[in-house]
Amino acid sequence: MSFLGWTALASGVLLLMALASAYVKALPITTSMLYLALGVALGPIGLDLVALDVVAASEAVEHITTVGVIIALFVGGLRLRLSLRDPAWRAAFALAGPVMVLTIAGIAAAAHVLVGIPLGVAVLFGAILAPTDPVLASTVAVNDADDGDRMRYGLSGEAGLNDGMAFPFVVFALAWLASDGPGAWIGGWFVERILWAVPAGCLLGYGLGRFVGLFAIRVRAHHRDTDAPTDLLALALCGISYVGAEAIHAWGFLAVFAAGLGLRAAEIRVVAESPHPGAAMRDTADTMPDHPPAEALVPADVSSEDLREPAVAAGVLVAETLSFGDTIERLVEAGLIVAVGIALGTHFDVRALPIALLLFVVIRPAAARLSLVRTPTTSHQKWLMGWFGVRGIGSLYYLTYAIGHGLPASMASVVAAMTVTVIAASIVVHGISSTPLLDRYERSLTGAAT
Predict the structure, then answer these.
(1) What is the pTM of this model?
(2) Domain 31-443 fold
């Protein structure tokens, strides 16, 4: 197509995003399903206007998905306001730890037995598909920083943590392939990729987010700067956290998520020291911090006089960061899910469908039920957390990373086809089920409250 043709197409997608939301909410579908359908219509299966070979374009797709995952992780971390000591985090840690490891093992076993993929490649395939996607999981994530629902909190925390926690296992599988099996290298992998890279990434990102957040809030309040470029600050913090972590051989994705948590910690500290004069303080028995989220108290039009209050400056910073991040996240989601739909024309593999079915119905739910036993969640919440293991852009990133870092060329097309097929199946299956299941869940909460 010509430049004008692509411009018209992009404008049409943006118009669809803007107008379809109100209608989609009332139907058992999601906007991601619409983007996927559009991609299928444009690709070889439909009008054959464009094709996408993920293997050939792996480097470009890797860079684009990196940006998308980074923004989603940062914004996801910023939405989480509970202390890490709060019981709501226990489900997130369980989902991002034992559930993910069991999921990798289950997918690897299924791929090895059902499809005959070599064991090392099967482990890599399991690691690629293990993480819950931080972009597509937004439907079941926390609604805002004042949302303490433990089902949503568990899934939100998981989406932030396991997109970084999956990386050591991708590297493990690639080392397995390079060494033709397990060996003496496992000890070095464990020390470097788990004992060092995980905590180092978390601490670096959290420290940067908290420091930059406190400094930016104080500068904004001191100078009463109503025009501060918060979008640039957010991008800079994402970039510094990611690059800094990679420079010290830590996990950049974990650092970015922790930076969002750190920026939220800065907001909590500011409002604790200088409460907003209009804030109605909560009962101390509430699980949320005593002071409501600062962004909830920001007026529509903030004057320089309003910024004299540090809590207002904190609210403006957080509100603008969330707004900017949400916009970028939606654009990335639309573009990449359309790309998945297009790629289906090149990479569909029917052998992946039984694996997808096992993953959605058996592997993930069973791992969740087993690992969430000791968490303070209800049976209904455990069941929903087991079901909503959405696969998406994070898996696309790990696929393209593996293609560029040691996945044998003879297996690249097979793994790519199976990954794209499972992602598409997840978008459809979880998209259809999300609205009715969440509506039922909300009704059960309302009934319990009355």
Answers:
(1) 0.91
(2) Na+/H+ antiporter like fold (1.20.1530)
